[in-house]
Design goal:
This protein has strands at residues 2-7, 10-13, 18-26, 33-39, 46-52, 56-59, 67-71, 77-82, 91-98, 111-112, 116-121. The chain is mostly beta strands.
């Protein structure tokens, strides 16, 4: 069992930055992939970024060059640095962990956090 808790969401103007964090506890040694997904009202949950084996990052095309995913050495804190934010980045952001290697597929993730709201104003 793995427990995940997101933090760092908030309201910022377009062009600004936010850094999201995800605290992981429990049997984190059994997770191989950790990632971030987001869901806006009326839309499906979409992939944002993931890191496989704590070494190989993956990004959605919409955030490449703007977002950076990272994990600390203890592998208990996943971060997402978000720069040059746009109104279309507005969504609830979820942290997730998987025991498999399929970073872009929501159904491959076994554990999810409660989400943190990110709102970007014009």
């Amino acid at each position: 069992q793995v427990e995940l808790a997101e933090s760092g969401g908030g309201l910022v103007q377009a062009g600004g930055s936010l850094r999201l964090s995800c605290a992981a506890s429990g049997r984190t040694d059994r997770t191989y992939t950790m990632g971030w997904f987001r869901q806006a009202p009326g839309k499906e949950r979409e992939f944002v970024a993931a890191i496989v084996g704590a070494a190989w990052p993956h990004y959605a095309d919409s955030v490449k060059g703007r977002f950076t995913i990272s994990i600390n050495s203890a592998r208990d804190t996943l971060s997402l640095q978000m720069n040059s934010l746009k109104p279309e980045d507005t969504a609830v952001y979820y942290c997730a962990a998987s025991q498999t290697v399929a970073p872009r597929l929501p159904r491959s993730y076994d554990f999810w956090g409660q989400g943190t709201q990110v709102t970007i104003s014009s």
